[in-house]
Amino acid sequence: MDHFIYRDGALYAEDVALAEIAAAVGTPFYCYSDATLTRHFRLFQEALAGLDHLICYAVKANSNLAVLRTLGALGAGMDVVSGGEYRRARAAGVPGERIVFSGVGKTREEMRHALEHGIRQFNVESEPELQALSEVATSMGATAPICLRLNPDVDAGTHEKIATGRKEDKFGVPIARAREIYAQAARLPGLQVVGADMHIGSQLTDLAPFEAAYTKLAELTRTLRADGHQIIRLDLGGGLGIPYTRSNETPPLPLEYGALVQRIFGDMEVEIEIEPGRLIVGNAGVLVSQVIYAKAGEGRDFLILDAAMNDLIRPAMYGAHHDIVPLREPEAGAALRPFDIVGPVCESGDTFAKARPMPPLTAGDLVAFRSAGAYGAVMASEYNTRPLIPEVMVKGDQFAVIRPRPTFDEMLARDTIPRWL
């Protein structure tokens, strides 16, 4: 459920008409709903009720400070994968003891900064990283709390580019070598083993891969405890999918996921961490764009929008589907026509949809891409010297620009021409 609905023929974000925002800030722009963010976070809280737990929002899904501040105020922790994301979480007011640092390529500088400013744990993904973190912590006279990220060799059945739990993926250490590497971690100075971590991929629409991976993790936890390791928390990662279409996708609900977690880990006296991103913020955002031209081609018609692949890369990168709807509600029974919906970037890959049935639209009409809150603005670029587009947050009948559109002068001023030119 989200809070983007038609009222009196117009598409609203909570109590604000999206056309009103378009008139104020121009198109294209992203719009996020505070009520949807809050609702989705609380669904996970309810799903894990009765378990000692912390929900660590995956910052990579949408790292706008207003989004992070909203979730942090609800009690969320943060899962970060870079020093920049760590700084964003802190700038949003999230304390270090609620920040988990993941990622395969942490630098010594990033480790040092997190240890100086507070960290809940590092999710260590390799033996070289284990050694580097030990050296950094020891040089500072500090102790780094760690979980080892384990690769369970479970195929989550998701898109090739977002699968993370197979043995051929770059993430984590092989679960078959876990006991050996935990023993190594216990011997290294400056480290404190506190738990284990696992994350098998993103946009999962079936609980079976979770069950297979979590069953392995529970068995290993018992073995590690028998070996003398203090496993006080388990980081289960994220990955629960969302419905990107309104018709046939039915991913598991947070309550169903929570029941699985309760069944496998409920009697283990361990703190559970989960790292949802997409499910919290995905359906909490839309991308609003304007039709520049309706173009008749040979054998196909095009809607050319002012949004492009640099604003929303998911369709070009993953072949991802987003429902695209007009801001003006079509009349009941309105005839639909197939359109290729494209942007103005000079690449054929700048295509959002092919032969998508749409109501009659013409230049100046506004459309919204649904479920665009995750991996939208955060993956945007300035390709073709197109400015990053504004981000807007709505709360009730209020809206605010939470990232403005830069001017061309601001963009050009970031470049420096060498003196020999």
What would your notes on this structure say?
The chain is α/β, with parallel strands linked by helices and 421 residues long. The chain has 2 domains: 4-31 and 282-413, Lyase, Ornithine Decarboxylase, Chain A, domain 1 (Beta Barrel), CATH 2.40.37.10; 34-280, TIM Barrel. It has helices at residues 18-25, 34-47, 65-73, 83-91, 108-117, 127-140, 178-187, 208-226, 254-265, 278-281, 314-318, 408-413; strands at residues 4-7, 10-13, 16-17, 29-33, 53-58, 77-80, 99-101, 121-124, 144-151, 173-174, 191-197, 233-235, 271-274, 285-296, 301-305, 324-326, 337-342, 351-358, 366-369, 391-395, 398-403. Strands 4, 14, 15, 16, 17, 18, 19, 20 and 21 form a 9-stranded mixed β-sheet that branches. Mean pLDDT is 93; it is low at 161-167.
What integer value in Å does the Rg equal?
Answer: 23 Å
Shape: globular
- The CATH topology of the largest domain is TIM Barrel
Q: What kind of assembly state do the chains in view correspond to? A: single chain
Would you count the extended β strands for me? 21
Beta-strand residue percentage: 15-25%
CATH class of the largest domain, named: Alpha Beta
Arithmetic mean pLDDT? 93
Helix count, per DSSP?
Answer: 12
Q: What would CATH call the architecture of the largest domain?
A: Alpha-Beta Barrel
Helicity, in percent? 25-40%
Unreliable stretches: 161-167
Q: Give the full name of the CATH homologous superfamily of the largest domain.
A: Alanine racemase
Count of discrete domains:
2
Q: For the report, how would you describe the main beta sheet?
A: 9 strands, mixed
Distance between the termini: 56 Å
Structural class call reads alpha/beta
